[in-house]
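User: Teach me something about this protein's shape.
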Amino acid sequence: MRDRDALEASEQGIRAVKLSFAVLALTAVLQLAVALVSGSAALLADTAHNFGDALTALPLWLAFALSRRPPSRTHTYGYGRAEDLAGAAIVGIILLSALVCGYESATKLLEGSGVRGAGWVALAAAAGFAGNELAARLRISVGRRIGSAALVADGQHARTDGLTSLAVLAGAAGAWLGYPVVDPLVGLGITAAILHIVRDSARPVWRRLMDAVEPGTVEALEEAASGMPEVLRVEEVRARWTGHSLQAEVRVRVEPDLPAGRLGDLSGRLAAAARKRLPRLERVLLEPVPDRPGDV
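Assistant: First, the predicted structure itself:
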């Protein structure tokens, strides 16, 4: 049942990625056409960023597709880790877009350039905001539903990008009022905002790659195990994410003369109790150790 849930979650993730990719790609193409005609550095920076956002869908798409494959004798935990690697690729793509934005904006600030068609630039900026907000809502809602930290983070990133698209309006307004220098300055401001996103996005990705779990995860497993009447004490708890599924290992001390029947269903009851607080918990490996006199 849990495997079927994981497959359905991956399918939902793929659908969300496909739709958000289409929305952001169309938005970026429209913005690029206006940016090339108008010469707006701010809009070009925002366009490069939106192209980067669209490309972040590709590693996520591949990761969700891989996660549907069953475990094998060589990949005994399955392929869920591909989702965490996709998160690292996303951070790299965002960083590349920041470098492109910064270079183009600095060049136009030093060499000077005018902005043509400020009204069209403003409309393109509004389109960028709308496209990013639509993609953000789709990714965040699906990501929260299936428990994908990578998809939620990518959606929050898209929402922030929508705000940077609105900042392009300031560059258009400056050009319309006769201050074209505002445009590359806004482009540099967008670059700084993207670098801030890189930093914030890298933190959760790094934590997942290093097998970190959220505060309260270990405590929830300890409390669930301690609540079992057969458990005398909890000795060790380990947990880690593989994609959008949580895996755990729990070692407990049990009564030395515990009947085999009660011992057999202890793991299932522990998993059921823990999932009340950890709904994305896929499986728990329970290691019951009989309590012997003299054991520490």
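Now, about its shape. Residues 235 and 296 are 10 Å apart (CA to CA). The chain has a mean pLDDT of 78. If you'd like, I can walk through any region in more detail.
User: That's plenty for now, thanks!
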